[in-house]
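ENTRY TYPE: paired fold submission
RECORD: A
CONTENT: sequence, then C-alpha cells
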Amino acid sequence: MPPKVRVKIPIHVLVYSIGFFPAAAYAYHWYKNAPTDEDFEKQLSKNYSQNIQSSREKHVQMTQFLQSIKDPNNTDQQQRMQEVLLGGRGQKKRLYAVDEEIYGTEEGAKLQKEATAGTAVDNSIINKKKKKGKKKKRKKKSEEEGSDGDDTNNTTDTSARLKQSVAGVVVAGTLAAGISMLLGGGKRSQ
C-alpha cells in the first residue's frame, strides 16, 4: 500500500485564502472586461458634456486671471486684488440708517449726547454688578481654602490609605501567583 500524502495547511492561511479569493476573482474579472480609455471617454462626453464644457470655460477664465495677476501694468486687476485682500475694510460703511434732517444739526448733537450718556450709565451699572460678583467669588474661594488648611489629619489619612492599598495589591498578587503555581503545576503552556 502506498503511503498517504498529508498536506498540513495552517488554519490562518486557509481562512485568509478563503477571504481573499472573492476579491482576487473580481479583480481578475474587472481587468479582463474593463472598458478601454476611448470607451470611457465617449461615455463621459455623452453623459457629462455640460459639466466638461463648463469646466473648460472655468479653466480658461482662471488662466486669464492668473496671467493678469502676473502683469504689473494691469492697474484694474491690482485694485481688485487689494479690495479682496482688505476684505471690504477699505472704505468705511455705515451700519445704521442716517436721518438726513437731523444729521449735522444742533438737535442731532443733543440726541447723540443723550444716547452716549445713557450708555455710560448702563455701563457703570453693569461694571458695579461685575465687581460685586467677583468679590463674592473671591470671598467664597478664600473660605474654601481656609477650611482646607485647618484639616491636617486629612493628608495623613490619605497617606495611610495609600499604604494600605499598596499592601493589599501586593498580597493579592502574591496569592494569585501562588494559586496559579499550585493549579498549573509550574508548567508553561506551549
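RECORD: B
CONTENT: sequence, then C-alpha cells
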Amino acid sequence: AAAESGPWRFVANCEMRRAVLESCEDQEMRREMYKMLPARIETTEDNLEIISRILAMRFDWARDVGYDSYADMVFESRMATQRQAEVFLLHLQNVSLAAARREQEELAAFARERGAMSVLKPWDVAYWQTKRQAEYLKSSGFDLAAFFPLPVVLNGLFELVRRLFGLEMVEVEEAVPLWHESMRFFHVVNASTSIP
C-alpha cells in the first residue's frame, strides 16, 4: 500500500465526497464516491409509510379548511401564490438555461483540451470546475489568500462570535500539547462573566 496507489479508505460523508469529486484524478473513483452517498440514505419501507401518512394528513387538513391541496393552503399565507411562484421559476429557467448550457459546453471543452476522453458525467463536473478555477486564478496572477490574511480572518471571526453569542476567544500562552507547531490554542470565554 502506498499513498499514491492505494488502497484507500474513505468515510462516506458529504465533506469527503466533495473532496474526492473536486480533487481525485481517477474518474472511476469519483464515480464510485458520487454514487456511494445516495445509497447510504435510501428510503426504507418504514420511512415511506410515515411520509405517506404525513402527506395524507396534510391533504385532509387542507380539504377540511376548504383548499384543494396542502400546497394551495400553504401558498395562501405566503407572499406569492402558487401560480406566481410557478411563473417566476419558469422565467428563471428561461433566462438561466442558455447560460448554464454555455457554461457546461465551455467546461466540457476545457476538459477535452486537457485530456478528458469522454463526455462529462455528473461526477466529473466538480473536478473540472476546480481545475479550471485553479488554472484561471494562477494564470491571472490572482492570489485569493492575499485578501484573507490569517490574523484579519481570525479577528473578524472572533468579533462575529462575540457579537452573536457573547463569547470571546482568549489565546492560551502557556505550553499546551498541540499536534503541529503552527497550531494555536484558545479558551472560549463568556464575555460578560469572563468565565471559560
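NOTES ON RECORD B: The radius of gyration is 25 Å. The CA atoms of residues 155 and 169 lie 10 Å apart.
STATUS: closed
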